Every structure is written in structure tokens, then in C-alpha cells.
Amino acid sequence: MKTRIAICGYGNLGRGIESQIPKNPDMQLVAIFTRRDPAALPVGATPTVHIADIQNYADHIDVLILCGGSATDLPEQSPQLAAAFNIVDSYDNHGQIPEHMKKVDTAARSGGKTAIISTGWDPGLFSLLRLYTEAILPAGSTASFWGHGVSQGHSDAIRRIDGVADAIQYTIPIEAAVEKAKRGEAAGLSTREKHRRLCYVAAMADADTARIEREIKEMPAYFADYDTDVIFVSKEELKENHARLPHGGCVIRAGETAPGHRHTLEFSLKLDSNPEFTASVLLAYARAAHRLNDEGVTGALNVFDVAPRYLYPGDPAEAVRRLL
């Protein structure tokens, strides 16, 4: 029996989920929920429903994938919906993940549901690599770098600012910091020393661009700790020059097992489409959420809690034969 997937939010990530479900034969898309007029969504045969009616579909969905932004959507939606649905989200405000998980856990346990939070590639796959490498090489230093690429969460945070019509934000690693990490000198590097942020913003007519720039640069948890450049462009230029959504990054762990015996572990990603790849990760964890709930596991989990065999689309015994 296929896992019945529903999408909540039809932006870049929601469209990414829709595009990747056909590549997962054990899944089917049964509904798309939106705050917009459902009739206006450019989708095919999948039912589109206003989010106000989402609770009416609880018995028809195995896993609800939340595709809203971490700035304002997921902090509210994940706890609200986890009591009625098995959910997967991509909440990516790293410093607030413990608090987010606690709220979602309370809701999911109250309804006997399974919620897997903060999935994707960072947090998500990169989180796993940080844990694995620090467990294996305890004497050393770890650094994570993102980009050069578009951050969906940071772009969304800019678009929520009053007066912004559209925006794209690029995260850019500072090469000198990357080289230090490879030499095992990452300890002590500040957030500002590792990355800078470049924002292209299309402002609404008569918007106060000085205020918008100030709000971006002072936004806590997103831009305040970085050197940030804000460039105002037209909507046409934004669409023409910044429509693609590439991203990537790497996790580097360097350390010693004995004096003079140095080791460097590096995991990297280069993505042509951040939404499509992130969607692929969320779908794997949606499979896990369904399986775990069937086994009676409830509450909020993160990627550290989910064994890899729950992600694999086939028989775990086949994974052992073919991949181990």
C-alpha cells in the first residue's frame, strides 16, 4: 500500500515535493493545501484545498509535508498540525530547534502521531555528518560551509519584510575559512568569518529601501551575525538573472588520532536545484514517519533518532545485501 502524501504550502519546496513524488513508486500525492485560492494553483489532477479545511482530511493522509518557511510558518504550523497528522518539516533555524522540537513533541504525543522535524540537508544530512565525524574523530574541529547558493529560508525571511515584492539571498563561503578548516584550524572561527550573505531585493513601489536594508541586516538568527550586502533590483531583473535555485556546501572535520597522525573527513553537496533536492530528503523522511507511526512510535523526532533503514524505499534486507 502506498504512503499517502499531502503538501502544505505550494511555494518552491511544495512544487519540489510534487515533482519528486513520481520518482518514489511507494508514494502518492493526495492533496495540496494552500493559503491562496486553490483554483488558482497551476496543478494537475491533485485536489487543491484551502488550508482552513485541512483538518477535514486527517483520515485520508498518511504524512503531511509542511513546506512553509521557518521564519513565521513552521513555528506555528508544525505544533498546530502535529496533533492530527504525521508530519515532516524542514525547520532550519538551528538555534531554535530544541524549542521547536519540544512544542511539536507535545502536540504529536497528544494525538498519537509521529513528527520528524528539521529534515533536509542542513539541518538534516549535514547534521548527521557532523555527528558521525565527531563521534569517530573526537579530537578535532568541525566546520560547516554553505554555498555558493540560494538559501530558501533566508530568501523567504526577506520576502516577509513589509515593502518587499520578491527577493533572493545567496550564501557565500569565505575561502580563507574553508582552507583553515581543512588544516584543522576551524576552532574559533566566527560566523562572520565563515560566510557572507548577498541579497537581491525587488522592492514595492514607493517602499522605503533604507528601512528594508536595515531590517535585513539587523534580522536576528538570519543576517545580524554576517557581513550582508543588499542590492535592489527590478522584479524583471530578479526573474531573469536569479530564477535558478542552486546550492550546496560541505562539512569538514579535521583532527588527530595520535601526534602527527592527522585526518580530514569531508562531505560535500553541489545542487542544481535546492528545492528539488530538499524535497527528496523530506520524502525519504516522510516514508520513515509513516513506518515509525505504524510501529507505534509517537512524538517529535529528528534525523538523529531515525535509523537509516526507515528511509530506504525497499526491503531493509535488500539494503543489507546490496548496499552494506
Please provide a written account of the structure:
- The strands form 3 sheets. A 7-stranded parallel beta sheet has the order 3-2-1-4-5-6-14, with helices on both faces. Strands 8-9-10-11 form a 4-stranded mixed beta sheet.
- Helix 1 (12-20) crosses helix 10 (274-294) and helix 2 (74-81) runs parallel beside helix 3.
- With 324 residues, it is α/β, with parallel strands linked by helices.
- The chain folds into 2 domains: 3-122 and 275-318, 3-Layer(aba) Sandwich (Rossmann fold), CATH 3.40.50; 125-272, Dihydrodipicolinate Reductase, domain 2.
- It is globular.
- It has helices at 12-20, 74-81, 97-111, 125-136, 152-159, 175-182, 191-194, 209-217, 235-241, 274-294, 316-323, and strands at 3-8, 27-34, 48-50, 63-66, 87-88, 114-116, 140-146, 149-150, 164-173, 195-203, 227-232, 247-258, 261-271, 299-301.
- The protein is built from 11 helices and 14 strands.
